[in-house]
Amino acid sequence: MSLATYQQHLQQRLAPVVQWYNSREPREQQVLKLLAAVFFGVLIYWLIWAPSLNARDQAMQRYVSNMQTLEWINANAGAVKAASGGKSASLPRNWVGEVSRSANAFGLTLKNFTPDGTTSVRIQMEEQPAGQSILWLQSLQEKGVQITNLEMTPGDKSGTATVRATLQQ
Which residue has the higher pLDDT, 165 or 90? Predict the structure, then answer.
């Protein structure tokens, strides 16, 4: 359909509305123009402005939350080093079993533990203390384990988290 045909089709559809508007008194036409302007203003607010403000507020909340988490990690890095004796220990040959044992040592329960060959393991923990989970992951990194994929979401209870991660030697 060409542009000219589209315009003609649109004019035919709008002809009754235009005729009705032209049949109104000039004062009524002014009121209708004012109402149309208010309607479009409200429409722009609800479709563009309000969602933009909401997205900005959510991004700011995520930023603040992430900065608090980073500050907490930085503040507790010394505690992890002190707990490991200040030296970087290496994992034994059976490092996958050590991952499970070290989680127990930190008071964490692994819900799902799936070895992927001899160099990788996928773990999942639900409703575990967030602080202990971070300390545990940091202690594994200090022992030479690489975290290739990490997803940490808040748990239902305050101070808990659900953690899914892929660890590699």
Answer: 165
